[in-house]
UniProtKB/TrEMBL annotation:
<keyword id="KW-0812">Transmembrane</keyword>
<keyword id="KW-0807">Transducer</keyword>
<feature type="region of interest" description="Disordered">
    <location>
        <begin position="406"/>
        <end position="444"/>
    </location>
</feature>
<dbReference type="GO" id="GO:0000750">
    <property type="term" value="P:pheromone-dependent signal transduction involved in conjugation with cellular fusion"/>
</dbReference>
<dbReference type="GO" id="GO:0004932">
    <property type="term" value="F:mating-type factor pheromone receptor activity"/>
</dbReference>
<feature type="transmembrane region" description="Helical">
    <location>
        <begin position="126"/>
        <end position="145"/>
    </location>
</feature>
<feature type="transmembrane region" description="Helical">
    <location>
        <begin position="12"/>
        <end position="32"/>
    </location>
</feature>
<keyword id="KW-0589">Pheromone response</keyword>
<dbReference type="GO" id="GO:0005886">
    <property type="term" value="C:plasma membrane"/>
</dbReference>
<comment type="similarity">
    <text>Belongs to the G-protein coupled receptor 4 family.</text>
</comment>
<feature type="compositionally biased region" description="Polar residues">
    <location>
        <begin position="351"/>
        <end position="366"/>
    </location>
</feature>
<feature type="compositionally biased region" description="Polar residues">
    <location>
        <begin position="417"/>
        <end position="444"/>
    </location>
</feature>
<dbReference type="InterPro" id="IPR001499">
    <property type="entry name" value="GPCR_STE3"/>
</dbReference>
<keyword id="KW-1133">Transmembrane helix</keyword>
<feature type="transmembrane region" description="Helical">
    <location>
        <begin position="44"/>
        <end position="63"/>
    </location>
</feature>
<feature type="region of interest" description="Disordered">
    <location>
        <begin position="351"/>
        <end position="385"/>
    </location>
</feature>
<protein>
    <recommendedName>
        <fullName>A-pheromone receptor PreA</fullName>
    </recommendedName>
</protein>
Amino acid sequence: MSSAPVLPYPQAVAIQTLSAIAILISLPPLVLHWKNRNFPAASLICWFLVLDLFNITNAFIWPGDDIENWWDGEGLCDVEVKILTGAYAAIPGTLVCIFRNLAAVLDTRRATLVPTKRQRRQSHGIELMFCLGIPLITALLHMVYQGNRYFIFAISGCVTGLDESWVSLALGYIWPLVICLIGNYYCGLVLYRLHRYRSQFGDIIRSANSGLNKSRFLRLFSLSFVMMLALTPTQAFMVYRNISLNLPWHSYSWTYIHDYAWYEIVKVPTNGEVFFDRWIPVIAGFMSFIFFGCGKDALSMYRSILRFFGLDCCFRTPQSSSAGSFAQNTSRSSGSRVRLLFARNSKQNARGIANTSCRTDSSNGSYEDIEKGSPPSEPSKRPGRFSWPKSPFSWLRHPFSSSSHKGVPSAPRLAVPSNTVSTSAWAGSSQSRGSIDLNTSPTQKDFIRVKQVIRQESKVRV
């Protein structure tokens, strides 16, 4: 007569359910980081996804303490213990790369407009080393100090075995803590530079050419900071715990470790308890969704998915004006950002530039100081025309619409007309009559030249 089936422990059901939810909600942040070519952040989420998958599998196979009917886990646990060993070093390694990249964004002494090919190769090499290379090495070195084949704990599943010698410390569980300390150094460097350049933080982010904006930078740093803050004491406790349990150490011997007893599989009941480190990937999945699954990029991705299935009819946001959409489109291009930035400061720059403007009349072609804003002697009146707004951003406050202005286009015309004066503005002295082309210093190589196009015709709406 077969024994009655053993019901799973409540923690087994809880960790299965929460791990499955963590996998689902971690997919949008993973897609966003991969789309933005943030390899360390994408690798961090991938490692947590693998650990969540292990939680679901192990709790399903070993949900209770019926060790007599347990499966030995041959094949599955052989692979799983190696991946777990690599994950212990990979997770802090990805955080090291994230903090290093954030610190490089705030490094004003080595800022470059476009990184060289050598710099890109070096950065990619460091990321591959910490995210994949070191975890692979630690997984292979586990064979050196692997005390037995593996352990099987109820709910937690496969657990690595360690030899009670100094080699386990030197090649095994000390390296995650060392990598965490490296990550703490870069984290402190980011905090120092954030405090030092707090007044120029927005300008530095915009000029770094890193694919990050201010919000994305702060969210990525906050997520990594919280993870590192929780991971460092956890790794320190695990090192202390392993040392205290393995003392006194015996001398290392390869033949002694890898004898016939090495193939032993130890099964351990837990009375429904789960190892605390099994909850780390679950919490990390929810944190990733909180920081990156509720932003504007994620919402637009959700909307595009619903639109693909034809389910976006209830989530359509009405467009307030065509000018708002124009501002959103122009903000995505660097040239439009430069024009908008110059337009905001055009009045202040015009006061500091003297004797460089000219005035023209539409009938006789005479010139006057048009940059100072002096009105023309005879304003030209043309049917179907409208007056330009006084403020560069007044079209944002008063959107162009058919109800307010007839015949007004949805976006300002950026093309240069035939009757215009074109000037290039920068800080310095004048170079020519029609334009000002100046540099900050003769040794500076990288600078931004802003070109302002001034329409010479004064349009007055009748």
